[in-house]
């Protein structure tokens, strides 16, 4: 194993193990196996929250890397293609309807959020089919238009809320990890492993896709078909994640772009760095969210946006200067 990865992995494991001990309520080793409040907080709140943060951050960063690759655009992220907004609109509608149903042990809100993401995917592919073009431009522009449409619907539905619902939706739209127990993790973990393994096995195709359509066809890769399959698969994962943790932005921009700067064309190294660093970044920002101003908690989406917005401008300015 590369020494850089080994060091990063050690740091990551240390963070995942240590962060749950730190918070308003102090946790010591002696209390972990007692029937006490501190034991419940550690095992049922902080551990699931830390693990969920790592999985979500890792997945968002990996999705960003894949989208930037297949769309050949360093500003492409999981949140510029309408998928996140579609999932968010579904959740907002569920809160408005006071949805209390469950399915397979999961809240009906998650189901509506996932349904919103599927609608986004369907509309984007439908537009591409109507215009008979599955080009990068068609998919990107359709996604951007849907992003604005769903954002407007969210504002409209929010306008119809009463005060209590407004507070609930505003809090959710800022993103955050608030699991109690391991139900969400048991659902997400198999999908997360499949997502990573699938990306690893397709790493050569993803690298070929980033070189352009003509090069891909010369290597025997049907780039347009491949692009659609990857777009749908990654969007599927994003829709599920957004339903669970809300629209946490910029993780899918910061980490993949840093990976590109560090590893250039070494896509295998980019993958390893992105998977580990994305998880660590969101885990750390979530830790800051719950400890910076106790007993209040800052929504993690605010912290990622405060970091990500300047970084986005940096990437934009760099690209504009490079392209003349």
> In CATH terms, what is the architecture?
Orthogonal Bundle
Structural class: mainly alpha
Q: Helix and strand string, N-terminal first?
A: HHHEEHHHHHHHHHH
The unreliable regions are none
How is the secondary structure organized here?
Layout: H1 3-18, H2 37-70, H3 83-96, E1 102-103, E2 106-107, H4 108-130, H5 136-159, H6 163-173, H7 183-201, H8 203-209, H9 213-218, H10 223-245, H11 251-263, H12 267-291, H13 300-322
Helix pairs in contact: 1-12, 2-7, 2-10, 2-11, 2-12, 3-4, 3-5, 3-6, 3-10, 4-5, 4-10, 7-10, 11-12, 11-13
Structural features, described:
The longest helix has 34 residues, at 37-70. The protein is 73% helix and 1% strand. It has a two-stranded antiparallel sheet with strand order 1-2. A hairpin with a 2-residue loop joins strand 1 and strand 2. The protein is built from 13 helices and two strands. The protein is mainly alpha-helical. Helix 11 (251-263) packs across helix 12.
Keyword list:
mainly alpha, two-stranded antiparallel ribbon, 324 residues, 13 helices, 73% helix, ABC transporter involved in vitamin B12 uptake, BtuC, 1% strand
């Amino acid at each position: 194993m590369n020494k850089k990865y080994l060091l990063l992995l050690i740091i990551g494991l240390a963070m995942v193990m240590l962060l749950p001990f730190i918070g308003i309520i102090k946790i010591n080793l002696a209390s972990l196996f007692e029937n006490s409040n501190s034991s419940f907080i550690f095992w049922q709140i902080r551990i699931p929250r830390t693990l969920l943060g790592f999985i979500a951050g890792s997945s968002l960063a990996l999705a960003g890397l894949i989208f930037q690759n297949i769309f050949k655009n360093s500003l492409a992220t999981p949140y510029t293609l309408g998928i996140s907004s579609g999932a968010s609109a579904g959740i907002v509608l569920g809160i408005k309807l006071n949805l209390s149903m469950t399915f397979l042990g999961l809240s009906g809100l998650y189901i509506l959020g996932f349904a919103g993401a599927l609608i986004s995917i369907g509309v984007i592919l439908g537009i591409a089919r109507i215009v008979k073009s599955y080009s990068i431009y068609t998919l990107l522009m359709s996604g951007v238009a849907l992003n604005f449409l769903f954002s407007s619907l969210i504002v409209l539905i929010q306008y119809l809320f009463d005060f209590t619902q407004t507070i609930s939706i505003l809090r959710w739209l800022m993103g955050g990890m608030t699991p109690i127990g391991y139900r969400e993790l048991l659902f997400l973990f198999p999908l997360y492993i499949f997502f990573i393994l699938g990306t690893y096995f397709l790493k050569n195709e993803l690298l070929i896709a980033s070189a352009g359509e003509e090069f891909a066809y010369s290597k025997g890769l049907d780039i347009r078909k491949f692009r659609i399959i990857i777009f749908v698969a990654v969007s599927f994962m994003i829709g599920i994640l957004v339903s669970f943790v809300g629209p946490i932005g910029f993780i899918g921009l910061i980490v993949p772009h840093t990976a590109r700067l560090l590893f250039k064309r070494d896509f295998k190294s980019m993958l390893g760095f992105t998977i580990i660093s994305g998880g660590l970044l969101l885990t750390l920002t979530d830790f800051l969210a719950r400890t910076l101003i106790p007993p209040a908690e800052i929504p993690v989406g605010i912290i990622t946006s405060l970091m990500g917005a300047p970084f986005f401008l940096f990437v934009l300015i760099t690209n504009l200067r490079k392209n003349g």
